[in-house]
Amino acid sequence: MGFDGMPERLFVCTPSKLGAYTDCPRRYRYSYVDRPAPAKGPPWAHNSLGASVHTALRNWYALPIDRRRPEALPTLLKGTWVREGYRDDEQERAVFRRALEWLESYVETLDPGDEPLGVERVVAVKTSVLAFNGRADRIDSRPGPDGPELVIVDYKTGRTGLDADDARGSQALALYAYAAERVFRKPCRRVELHHLPTQTVAGHDHTVESLARQLSRAEDTARDIIAAERAVADGTDPDDAFPVSPGIRCGWCDFRRSCPAGADAPEREPWSAVERALAPVEPGDGAAE
Length: 289
Ligand code: SF4
Known about the structure:
The chain is of the alpha/beta class. It has helices at residues 15-23, 25-33, 45-62, 73-80, 89-108, 164-169, 171-184, 208-233, 238-241, 272-278; strands at residues 11-13, 118-126, 130-144, 147-156, 188-195, 200-205. Strands 1, 2, 3, 4, 5 and 6 form a six-stranded mixed β-sheet that branches. Helix 1 crosses helix 2 and helix 7 (171-184) packs across helix 8 (208-233). Iron/sulfur cluster is lined by residues 24, 26-27, 30, 244-246, 249-250, 253, 255-256, 259, 261-262.
């Protein structure tokens, strides 16, 4: 508790911090509370793939406009390629080629002359409960009926298709929009998931009310985390304050080997998800608005 007359400390958070607790309080504890943190499993190839593609797209926008051409992509991707987690060189090469195809198709849909308002731009906002900050993949400024409007763009490289419900339900995207509107003092209601494997866009247009609802949920999560941390400080067993929430996600959890509930989850190889990325995409795997 804060001292009398002293403001309570704000809960400093990112979308992944909030998401970790919402998914599984125990995973949150392993990631952000326990020090030293329990050992993580080996790196995942799908994380390497996602990071490589995201950084290549960031560097695409760092090029002068006349060099934003598909021929630049192999060098960009090579320069940002993360090698960890792949089964062997052959698989890594195949995934590199697939990622390059995604990027080549994706940049065909972009106007090289468009300058986003922000690329991997950090936006931050404070409320009475939390101090949020997060890095948006891209923030576009597009013409609206009453002047420029901002759009939050998030790149996705997973196999699973995405639809408008995913865009609507994403707390991270909503918080980016809420923060961007305040940072840039321009309306920001539109959020989009750009799924590179299927070249589809799943979008949603928020309202002031729907953004406020997402913010309120984030504040509720922050209050729950603060309460759990206080309970531990007051003597509650940390295992009770941060319970496990086992489910299908345990197979992909970095802490599966340290967690009693994770032992029951099927073991995934670090490259299991990218193996699926190499399989042909079936119609309907990706969905557009
Ligand atoms: S293995 Fe499952 S229950 Fe354990 S921390 Fe990870 S997600 Fe939570």
